[in-house]
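Please, structure for the following, as tokens.
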Amino acid sequence: MKTLKLILFCCVFLLTNLMYAKPLRLGIAGFIHDHVHQILGRPAKGDVEIVGVAEPNRELAMRYLKRYNLPENLWYPTLEAMIAATKPEAVCAFNSIFEHKQVVEICAPKGIHVMVEKPLAVNTAHAKVMVALAKKHNIQLLTNFETTWYSSHQVAYDLIYGKNALGDIRKVVVHDGHKGPKEIGCSQEFLSWLTDPVMNGGGAVIDFGCYGANLMTWLMKGERPLTVTAVTQQMKPDVYPKVDDEATIILTYPKSQAIIQASWNWPFDRKDMEIYGQKGYVVCDRTLQMRTRLGDGVKRDAVEEKRELTKLSAPYDDPFSYFAAVIKGEIKPEKDLSSLEVNQIVVEILEAAVQSAKTGKAVKL
């Protein structure tokens, strides 16, 4: 009897491991977000498998599939057709922000997990529908930000909460931007909705403001700000006639604040963050660089140090590896940068920022 039980246990163990060893069956919804190149050109790691792509623009789909040496038979004209034919376990959305809700409406009732590109939704009304569907049908609904995979951000978080090296956060300044989507050569398909106030929800205030809102909400462990104040401008109305290209968002909390600078006007690309605490500060300069000045909160002679960091280890170094690990139950995305809890608040902040910019008044959350 003991031998039989051992054999049965081993069989179950082996079957379980084989099941989890299989790559995640992943579908793609839309090719009009230029971040789609991240998955199309991703080296094979054995953790995800593209089983189908849904894109109504056949010419665009064929062009991209050919570029990345992917078979043409992956293409389907609609998300419903792709799901019916390929039975994906999960879908990554690379369409407009406005269309994220529709992707969840199609996928959630079928038990298909979804990851969208930042931000989660175009407004709070869409976000509420998406959150309700995700909870009702028990699916994972994640949001992908490039800055999630920066070593500097994770090391900073550990300095704050793991080592208490900064004390309480007092001020965070986030810089995200570049010359502008047209100026850096974004595709026409991307520009067509990125510069549309309905399909994107705004211009730079959404496109780059979302990074700071995401990072600050994470640093504050999911706490909503008390107020949101924003100023937006059109520096280049001839290039971006419908949306802002310059934005500054100020978030206040009981004992801290954040200043989020979002721009389509900077001479160089930048994604960096300054975190000031009671005892020191951390400057996260993109992925693998960091500057720290840490003291005891009393002495004023602490020396700034430069740190060279190593890349994050898998599956925390890549959105698709992370997505697969979450679906397999290896990671619980509770109040992390990709989580639904954090990103629902991000949408609230962005909507309040747009409202504040229009009215000239602070918006209370």
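Residues 33 and 211 are 17 Å apart (CA to CA). The first strand starts at residue 24 and ends at 29.
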